[in-house]
C-alpha cells in the first residue's frame, strides 16, 4: 500500500514537472521565431504640447499646465499631424466629437472651455462655427502670465473628413470620446464610404457602445475598447500558456502598459508572434495602466522595452522618439 502510494505520488510529481517544462518551453522567447524590423510608432494627438501629469484628473485643464513650448504645434491639427509624419509616425491618434450639424470635429476635450475662447461642447456648434474658434487661446506654461498660442489657433480645428482627405495613405487611431452608440453608427456611415484599402489603415477605439455599433456596421474595421480588451486578455491570461489565442482578439488593437506586459504568457516575442498571427496590433504604453496617455517620451524611457522590441510604441513626443529609429524623413 505504501509502495503504491509512493508510485502514485511520483507520477503526480512527474506530471507536474512535465507540465512546468511544457509551459516554459511553450512560452519562452528564447525559442520564439526571431522578430525583425523597427517598432511601430504611434504619435498621440500628432505633435503636441506636453504637460505635467501630477494629480491629473478627468476634468483637469491640461492646457493650463503645459511645459514651455519647444515647437509651434497644437494637438489634433493638420499641421501637427504633418509634423508627426515628418518625424516618423507610423500612426497618429486623434479624438473626435460630434457637432451640431452631425459632423465630427477633431478635438480632445469634452468641453471647449479649457483650450478655446468659447464655452460649451462641440455639439453646441456647427463645424463651420468651430472653424472660427481659437483653439490655442487657453494654453499657458506659466500659470497665466503668458499665452503663447493665443490668436494662433483660429481655423485650426479640422473635421474628420478633412483629416482623412488630407492624409489618404496615413494610418490613424480614431478616439470616439463618448459612449453613445449612435455616434458609432454615424462614424461607421462616414468610414463606410472609404475604400477597403483606406479602411484597413484605420482603427477605432473608445467607449464600448459606439465602438461596438461601428463594428456591427463595419465588420472589417479594427477596433479597441475596454470590452474588447477584456474579451481578449482575460481568456488569454487563463489559458494562453497553451499557445491558444482567443478568437475575440482577432483584428483588434491592444494597448498594454509596460509594467504589466511581462505578466502576459510568452512576453515578449512568443506573445507578439501569437498576436501577429491573430492580426492583433500591440501598442505598449508607459507605466502601470493608471494613465493610458503615458508614453515613451524621452530616450531613456525606451530602456523599459525588451531588447529587440519591434511592436507598437505610444509616444507623446514623436519629435524625440521617431529620429531614434531612423524614421525621420
Automatic annotation (TrEMBL):
Pfam families xref list: GDPD
Domain of life: Bacteria
Any GO BP annotation: lipid metabolic process
GO MF annotation list: phosphoric diester hydrolase activity
Residues annotated as domain GP-PDE: 59-325
PANTHER family per the UniProt record, alphabetical: GLYCEROPHOSPHORYL DIESTER PHOSPHODIESTERASE, GP-PDE DOMAIN-CONTAINING PROTEIN
Name assigned to this protein: Glycerophosphodiester phosphodiesterase
Annotated organism of origin: Paenibacillus whitsoniae
Amino acid at each position: 500500500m505504501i509502495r503504491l502510494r509512493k508510485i502514485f505520488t511520483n507520477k503526480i510529481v512527474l506530471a507536474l514537472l512535465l507540465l512546468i517544462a511544457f509551459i516554459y518551453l511553450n512560452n519562452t522567447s528564447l525559442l520564439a521565431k526571431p522578430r525583425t524590423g523597427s517598432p511601430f510608432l504611434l504619435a498621440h494627438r500628432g505633435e503636441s504640447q506636453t504637460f505635467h501629469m501630477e494629480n491629473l484628473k478627468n476634468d483637469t485643464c491640461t492646457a493650463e499646465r503645459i511645459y514651455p513650448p519647444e515647437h509651434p504645434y497644437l494637438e489634433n491639427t493638420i499641421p501637427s499631424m504633418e509634423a508627426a509624419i515628418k518625424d516618423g509616425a507610423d500612426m497618429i491618434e486623434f479624438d473626435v466629437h460630434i457637432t451640431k450639424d452631425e459632423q465630427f470635429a477633431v478635438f480632445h476635450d469634452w468641453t471647449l472651455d479649457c483650450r478655446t475662447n468659447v464655452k460649451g461642447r462641440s455639439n453646441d456648434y456647427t463645424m463651420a462655427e468651430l472653424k472660427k474658434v481659437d483653439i490655442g487661446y487657453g494654453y499657458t506654461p506659466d500659470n497665466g502670465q503668458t499665452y503663447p498660442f493665443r490668436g494662433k489657433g483660429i481655423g485650426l480645428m479640422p473635421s474628420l473628413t478633412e483629416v482623412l482627405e488630407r492624409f489618404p495613405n496615413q494610418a490613424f487611431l480614431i478616439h470616439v470620446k463618448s459612449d453613445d452608440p449612435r455616434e458609432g453608427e454615424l462614424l461607421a456611415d462616414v468610414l463606410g464610404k472609404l475604400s477597403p484599402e483606406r479602411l484597413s489603415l484605420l482603427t477605432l477605439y473608445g467607449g464600448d457602445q459606439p465602438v461596438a455599433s461601428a463594428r456591427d456596421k463595419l465588420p472589417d474595421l479594427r477596433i479597441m475598447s475596454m470590452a474588447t480588451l477584456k474579451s481578449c486578455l482575460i481568456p488569454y491570461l487563463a489559458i494562453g500558456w497553451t499557445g491558444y489565442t482567443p478568437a475575440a482578439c482577432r483584428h483588434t488593437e491592444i494597448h498594454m502598459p509596460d509594467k504589466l506586459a511581462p505578466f502576459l504568457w510568452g512576453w515578449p516575442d512568443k506573445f507578439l508572434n501569437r498576436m501577429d498571427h491573430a492580426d492583433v496590433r500591440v501598442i505598449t504604453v508607459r507605466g502601470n495602466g493608471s494613465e493610458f496617455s503615458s508614453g515613451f517620451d524621452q530616450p531613456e524611457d525606451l530602456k523599459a522595452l525588451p531588447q529587440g522590441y519591434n511592436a507598437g510604441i505610444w509616444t507623446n513626443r514623436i519629435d524625440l522618439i521617431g529620429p531614434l529609429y531612423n524614421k525621420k524623413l
